[in-house]
């Protein structure tokens, strides 16, 4: 079968690879001059180096992502600590601690004061159990409660980064799915991982190479404006584009921003190579050789701030917390306005499934109804599902 895949983000690439593996001929259309969509690297002239559009953190329980990387030969390009550790610092008090999960499924770590969040008591971890019962209408905050250090130092940062939505607005349902596939399976499934060189080098370029060497027709800079009648197609574009291409399709309509800052500076990468920060604007810090990158998720709340003010404030937090020079180094602030859909109950209810009203037209994308938050794992899983739905007609 010949299949058109529209969109070369991770969902489209996963679908294209799956279909190619199954022996189908893929024509992959990408509107932009380069593939990758919301997960890409580029050379930044101002900074004089390659950077990612945003830090992307994975967990070793993201099994569809690991299988995708294995397939395209890029599994070894992920890096991260050998142990399931998450170092944190409080930017106000300066206190630092490291969450040290144990590798097995039984959570021994919560019984050890040295391994869990400082200022928390064992019984408070029942909040994690409550998340197991989450349904779509439950907001994270309502379900786990907002009092105490467990919320401020773990559950809130976890929810913001996993759901890209403030916990008082976010449905806890997709967080339940993330926890079930990671922390609940144990530390082995919760090892933090990220791309060694860059997102394109890990997720995108090897996939394009893999596809090309197997005969797929990869067309960059070709925007698709209508579907070809009768053509088997995977539509793997953002929701607002999908709604234009597929008649009668209802899609999520609200989005959250993510802000990433890249500073041309160096610091000690510490034990893990990254930190979670609480109490300030900065949320996650990743240290590469000579670039320090900071992520701020659910960033709509900062939309009124200009980039210079954000850079000054974030660098101020880093300088104070890590004892760095206070002069703001050369930097790039990248604001992804529609980084993901908002994970509210109302928006999640608008996520469509894989199949459309047209028999051989399937949907893929992190915004479709994957059960997961809008993440790399969700995008790849949706691409695989779209490919399999085409191959196995309803
Ligand atoms: C700053 C940032 C940080 C993030 N951090 C994380 C993280 O830490 N962990 C994580 O798991 N996820 C993270 N994500 C989410 C992750 O990047 C996305 O879930 C994933 O990249 C989505 O892939 P996709 O293929 O569904 O969509 P997209 O990447 O949006 O791909 C859609 C593609 O379709 C193309 N297209 C659009 N219109 C057309 C057309 N008419 N014809 C042809 N092509 C078209 C677009 O150019 C694009 O390449 C982050 C996202 C951002 C923006």
How would you describe the overall organization of this protein?
Helix 1 runs parallel beside helix 11. This protein has eleven helices and 17 strands. The mean pLDDT is 97. It has helices spanning 10-21, 63-71, 126-131, 140-144, 149-163, 173-181, 199-213, 239-245, 307-322, 345-348, 376-391; strands at 2-6, 25-30, 41-44, 49-52, 58-59, 78-79, 85-90, 96-100, 192-195, 217-220, 233-235, 255-263, 274-278, 284-288, 291-296, 331-341, 361-363. The chain has 394 residues and is an alpha/beta fold. Helix content is 29%, strand content 21%. A hairpin with a 5-residue loop joins strand 13 (274-278) and strand 14 (284-288). The chain has a seven-stranded mixed beta sheet, with helices on both faces. It is globular, with a radius of gyration of 21 Å. It has a domain at 2-78 and 194-253 and 345-391: 3-Layer(bba) Sandwich (FAD/NAD(P)-binding domain). Flavin-adenine dinucleotide is lined by residues 6-12, 29-32, 37-39, 53-54, 56-58, 223-224, 236-238, 241, 258, 260, 336, 339-340, 365-366, 374-377, 379.
Summarize the structure in short.
This protein has 394 residues and is of the alpha/beta class. The protein is 29% helix and 21% strand.
Q: Any chance you could write out the topology, listing elements then pairs?
A:
Blueprint: E1 2-6, H1 10-21, E2 25-30, E3 41-44, E4 49-52, E5 58-59, H2 63-71, E6 78-79, E7 85-90, E8 96-100, H3 126-131, H4 140-144, H5 149-163, H6 173-181, E9 192-195, H7 199-213, E10 217-220, E11 233-235, H8 239-245, E12 255-263, E13 274-278, E14 284-288, E15 291-296, H9 307-322, E16 331-341, H10 345-348, E17 361-363, H11 376-391
Parallel strand pairs: 1-2, 1-11, 2-10, 7-13, 11-17
Antiparallel strand pairs: 3-4, 5-9, 6-9, 7-8, 12-15, 12-16, 13-14, 14-15
Helix pairs in contact: 1-7, 1-11, 2-11
The structure holds flavin-adenine dinucleotide (FAD).
Flavin-adenine dinucleotide is lined by residues 6-12, 29-32, 37-39, 53-54, 56-58, 223-224, 236-238, 241, 258, 260, 336, 339-340, 365-366, 374-377, 379.
């Amino acid at each position: 079968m010949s299949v058109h895949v529209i969109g070369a983000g991770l969902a489209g690439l996963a679908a294209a690879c799956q279909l190619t593996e199954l022996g189908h001929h893929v024509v992959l259309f990408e509107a932009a001059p380069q593939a990758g969509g919301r997960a890409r690297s580029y050379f930044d002239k101002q900074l004089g180096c390659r950077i990612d559009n945003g830090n992307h953190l994975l967990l070793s329980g993201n099994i569809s992502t690991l299988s995708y990387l294995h397939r395209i030969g890029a599994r070894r390009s992920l890096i991260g600590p050998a142990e399931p550790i998450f170092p944190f610092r409080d930017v106000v008090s300066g206190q630092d601690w490291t969450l040290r999960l144990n590798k097995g499924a039984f959570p021994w770590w919560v019984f050890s004061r040295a391994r869990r969040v400082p200022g928390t008591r064992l019984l408070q971890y029942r909040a994690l159990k409550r998340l197991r019962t989450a349904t779509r209408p439950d907001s994270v905050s309502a379900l786990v409660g907002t009092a105490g250090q467990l919320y401020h130092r773990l559950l809130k940062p976890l929810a913001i980064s996993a759901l890209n939505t403030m916990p008082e607005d976010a449905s806890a349902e997709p967080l339940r799915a993330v926890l079930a596939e990671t922390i609940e399976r144990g530390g082995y499934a919760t090892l933090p991982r990220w791309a060694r060189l860059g997102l394109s080098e890990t997720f995108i370029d090897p996939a394009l190479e893999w596809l090309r060497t197997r005969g797929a027709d990869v067309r960059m800079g070709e925007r698709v404006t209508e579907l070809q009648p009768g053509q088997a197609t995977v539509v793997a574009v953002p929701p607002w584009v999908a709604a234009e291409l597929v008649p009668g399709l209802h899609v999520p309509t609200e989005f959250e921003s993510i802000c990433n800052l890249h500073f041309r500076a160096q610091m000690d990468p510490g034990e893990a190579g990254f930190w979670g920060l609480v109490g300030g604007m900065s949320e996650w810090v990743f240290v590469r050789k000579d670039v320090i990158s900071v992520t701020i998720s659910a960033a709509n709340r900062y939309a009124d701030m200009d980039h210079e003010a954000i850079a000054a404030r974030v660098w101020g937090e880093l300088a104070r917390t890590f004892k760095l020079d206070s002069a703001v180094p050369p930097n790039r602030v990248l604001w992804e306005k529609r980084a993901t859909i908002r994970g509210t109950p109302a928006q999640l209810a608008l996520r469509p499934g894989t199949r459309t009203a047209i028999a051989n037209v399937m949907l893929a994308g992190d915004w479709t109804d994957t059960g997961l938050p809008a993440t790399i794992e969700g995008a790849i899983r949706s691409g695989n599902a779209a490919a399999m739905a085409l191959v196995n007609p309803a």
